[in-house]
């Protein structure tokens, strides 16, 4: 006789895990930005613990996107836009820096860039989840009630038409 496990009465944790994963990914991304901009938390990658020089292309701009984008994604504020920008930044980093060293991420040290890029793309596609500032800032609209408009149809017959707005 096989033992069956039933989870019908367990709470659905997917919305909480969804939001928590978004927060963690945003926080980790922001940490990369802080490290690169201020030389803390181990400093910028490839800078031997230092900070990226102000205005240096593309490192300084990427670090600003990492910090600001990571914070926005972690808070769930303008999440989709921030996640798309973060995803593109990491895709650019992967193809312009890491791809030269080898075909696969494991060969070229680009696994973090690839994972961040795809994770942010996923966040942009599925949204921030329930626990997000975006959920608070959404404007609740009242449904529009459309009044029928009399329309002349054919030989003097009158019909009603509800326009789509």
UniProtKB/TrEMBL annotation:
The keyword Transmembrane helix applies. It comes from the Bacteria. It is found in: Cell membrane. It is a multi-pass membrane protein. The keyword Membrane applies. Its main location: membrane. Belongs to the DoxX family. PANTHER family: BLL4328 PROTEIN (PTHR33452:SF4), OXIDOREDUCTASE CATD-RELATED (PTHR33452). This is Putative oxidoreductase. It comes from Labedaea rhizosphaerae. The lineage of its organism: Bacteria, Bacillati, Actinomycetota, Actinomycetes, Pseudonocardiales.
């Amino acid at each position: 006789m096989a033992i069956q496990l039933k989870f019908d009465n367990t709470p659905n944790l997917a919305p909480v895990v969804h939001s928590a994963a978004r927060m963690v990914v945003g926080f980790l991304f922001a940490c990369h930005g802080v490290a690169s901009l201020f030389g803390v938390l181990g400093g910028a990658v490839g800078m031997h613990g230092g900070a990226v020089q102000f205005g240096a292309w593309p490192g300084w701009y990427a670090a600003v996107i990492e910090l600001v984008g990571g914070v926005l994604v972690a808070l769930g504020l303008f999440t989709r836009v921030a996640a798309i920008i973060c995803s593109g930044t990491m895709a650019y980093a992967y193809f312009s820096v890491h791809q030269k060293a080898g075909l696969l991420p494991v060969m070229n040290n680009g696994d973090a860039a690839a994972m961040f890029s795809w994770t942010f793309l996923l966040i942009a596609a599925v949204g921030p989840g329930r626990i997000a500032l975006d959920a608070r800032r959404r404007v609740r609209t009242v449904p529009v009630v459309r009044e029928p408009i009399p329309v002349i149809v054919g030989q003097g017959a009158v019909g009603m038409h509800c326009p789509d707005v």
